[in-house]
Design goal:
heterodimer, A: about 220 residues, mainly alpha, B: about 475 residues, two-stranded antiparallel sheet, 2 strands, globular
Chain lengths: ~220, ~475
């Protein structure tokens, strides 16, 4: 039952990464990120009940508060303030993006990562999907032109790594879990401030138009 | 307890600076002097205790000779950059480039940056070390965009994004390493420390560890500035305020490399050193060659120094990749490079204050315009290019000697790269140092705080070349044994 639920949630997580690749609207992208963070929090809550770990439960709640509530509010405010309706165009076209994602899935299931996908854990069936999610979110960060979508790409990568760590059975202390969540939160705040500053300077968040370093 | 005090000093300094009001700005100097003095005192105590007792290990800290060596590098680098910052920003304040609130912001972030570096090299847990190194990115991003110019903003954004992606990959590698390791540690429920990881012997299935180390190498290698993940480095180092550039190049790169070394020790224990050494040699030689050619055609002296850092990180990587004597020389190289690069960046700060340009073609006659800085700049150039009797000559010689039998082709390429760098540096430096001072440039140095830190670093650099203090020798000997 739990194995199937986690497999389902991991698949949902991977789907959110694909949807983020195809989305061009900033507000929807943030909402998908919030949904994705909710999925990861839910995974941690399931693990916390299964292992009867209050520490894991607290860190899952902290993640829920920070990533599902606080950070999306931050991003929405930024979008409203800077009127960033569409800021997430991609370098590759939609068909090409899908082909790359397909290749990523093949790679994650190939012998290259066999050592990881065959790790002795109860949830080993979900490892290839988790790995595909990591690689696809890395591609998401590279493929997007907008500064906001780069931030969402990096946060997605972090979400995928957290889910991967849970699936391979890595247990951490509560302090450490909270430390990582705090670190990511501070990172998001700083990145958001940077976006505001960049918009003020360049009048755009399309990073292909920001070329002052070539002077 | 000493370690906690050492960590508290920069934190308390940052908090104290945040309370300073405009009319009390002299207090910033007092706080910085006091913080530097306390950091030197506590660092010296930690280093002497480490030498005496070998390893200091507790729930949160793990300090061995390698950490102690890094503590030494951080202390010297932050002392010189911290003191120099006061003089440098005072001059910029006089020119109305920065105001009081910016100066205050600079010192708060600088102290937080120093704290994160100390924390990274002391902490016992690999994931906590990752948090600390990620925190160095966060504390320095606003310092790189300090001047609030479009190019500085762009450099800071590039720095933030590239390093964050890189470090997340490093985090993934760390987690894989921990997951594989925890299955080999009996009775360990929670995440393990460096001490536990090192105690694991050879393991059956090396493939997962190899994948983990590749992620670690790419991740922390990004922060170290190894090619091809180096693209953020020249921009960030050239756009940041000079004292920060000195810290980024002279200290932070070593701290990031330390993260690779810590993991290398663990991985080598599990699967042997061939794999990690091969990767280090590969990244090392590519970094040397690419940096060498860019140095040859460089037009901006701050970028020149930044590319030189990439080259030197490559040389250090080669040393650890070659192993044996290369490890000992690599550790020494970290110390000498840190000193020489700090000296050069601080000199470049005075040059920038005088000429208001970072273009090599706009800088002529430094020896006449800034006699003291000019001499030290030449000193630094000779030191960094490995001219005897400077220490980097010997370390490069020993690193290349260590690899000559196993990797003759790589050694030949590295030698070619080092020669190209020498030619490039000499060409640029002579054109800057000699010649007529451009019209409108007033001759003379700026003041005590912009010259004294240079002199201190230069004295240590030359002094260490002639006579190496026994405590550093013991630290390096002991640290090199960790790689056997």
């Amino acid at each position: 039952m739990i194995v199937n639920s986690l497999y389902f949630l991991e698949t949902l997580l991977f789907i959110t990464v694909i949807v983020l690749q195809l989305m061009n609207e900033s507000r929807t992208s943030v909402m998908i990120y919030a949904a994705q963070s909710f999925i990861v929090s839910l995974m941690l809550i399931i693990f916390s009940f299964q292992e009867n770990s209050s520490g894991l439960f607290i860190s899952a709640l902290a993640m829920l508060a920070v990533k599902v509530v606080i950070m999306p509010i931050f991003f929405f405010k930024l979008i409203d303030r800077q009127k960033l309706k569409f800021a997430t165009t991609s370098y590759l076209s939609v068909p090409m993006t899908l082909i790359v994602i397909m290749l990523i899935v093949v790679l994650a299931n190939s012998s290259v990562f066999r050592s990881l996908t065959s790790m002795p854990t109860e949830y080993s069936s979900a490892i290839p999907i988790a790995l595909s999610g990591i690689l696809a979110s890395l591609f998401l960060t590279i493929n997007k032109r907008g500064a906001l979508s780069q931030i969402i790409g990096i946060l997605t990568l972090e979400n995928c790594i957290v889910s991967f760590a849970s699936i391979i059975g890595l247990k951490q202390t509560l302090v450490l879990e909270l430390g990582i969540i705090f670190d990511i939160f501070v990172w998001s705040v700083i990145a958001t401030v940077f976006i505001s500053m960049m918009y003020k300077h360049f009048g755009s968040l399309n990073i292909t138009q920001i070329t002052h370093l070539k002077d | 307890m000493l370690l906690t005090f050492l960590l508290l000093v920069p934190i308390l300094a940052a908090i104290s600076v945040s309370f300073v009001k405009r009319e009390q700005k002299i207090y910033i100097k007092h706080i910085m002097f006091a913080a530097s003095a306390l950091e030197i005192f506590f660092s010296a105590s930690v280093i002497s205790q480490t030498i005496a007792s070998g390893i200091y290990s507790s729930t949160y800290y793990y300090v061995d000779s390698l950490s102690a060596l890094l503590i030494f590098i951080i202390t010297v680098g932050s002392f010189s950059a911290g003191i120099y910052s006061m003089g440098y920003l005072h001059e910029e304040n006089k020119k109305d480039i920065v105001g009081f609130s910016r100066i205050k912001q600079f010192f708060i972030l600088l102290n937080l940056f120093i704290f994160t570096m100390f924390f990274a090299v002391m902490v016992s847990n690999p994931a906590l070390m990752w948090i600390a190194i990620e925190a160095t990115t966060l504390s320095t991003a606003f310092l790189i965009s300090f001047y609030n110019k479009p190019s500085a903003m762009e450099a800071a954004w590039k720095y933030l994004i590239i390093n964050s992606v890189g470090l997340l990959l490093g985090f993934l590698g760390t987690l894989i390493l921990l997951a594989v390791s925890s299955s080999h540690l009996e009775g360990t429920e929670l995440i393990v420390s460096w001490k536990d990881l090192i105690s694991i012997g050879a393991i059956q299935d090396p493939l997962a560890i190899k994948v983990a180390f590749i992620f670690i190498m790419v991740g922390f290698g990004t922060k170290t500035g190894l090619v091809p993940m180096h693209t953020w480095l020249p921009d960030a180092h050239s756009k940041a305020p000079v004292p920060l550039s000195a810290l980024l190049s002279g200290v932070l790169l070593n701290v990031s490399f330390f993260a690779i070394l810590r993991n290398k020790i663990v991985v080598d224990n599990m699967i042997g050193s061939d794999f990690s050494s091969g990767l280090l040699v590969l990244f090392g030689i590519v970094s040397i060659i690419i940096a060498a050619f860019i140095i040859l055609v460089q037009v901006n002296y701050k970028r020149l120094l930044a590319y030189s850092s990439i080259e030197h990180m490559g040389i250090i990587a080669l040393g650890f990749g070659f192993g044996g004597m290369g490890v000992l020389a690599g550790l020494l190289h970290m110390v000498f490079h840190s000193l020489a690069k700090s000296l050069l960046f601080l000199c470049s700060g005075n040059i920038f204050l005088k000429y208001s340009s970072t273009k090599i073609s706009n800088v002529r006659g430094v020896l006449s315009a800034l006699p003291f800085t000019g001499i030290l700049f030449l000193f630094g150039v000779f030191a960094i290019t490995g001219v005897p009797p400077f220490g980097l000559f010997f370390t490069e010689f020993y690193i290349l000697s260590a690899g000559i039998s196993s990797y003759p082709g790589i050694v030949a390429l590295a030698m070619a790269g080092i020669i190209i760098v020498f030619v490039g540096f000499l060409r640029h430096a002579t054109s800057m140092v000699f010649g007529e001072v451009p019209a409108g440039i007033k001759k003379g140095e700026f003041g005590f705080l912009t010259t004294a830190p240079l002199a201190v670093v230069a004295v240590i650099l030359v002094g260490f070349g002639l006579f190496f203090p026994p405590f550093i020798v013991r630290l390096i000997e002991s640290a090199s044994k960790l790689f056997l």
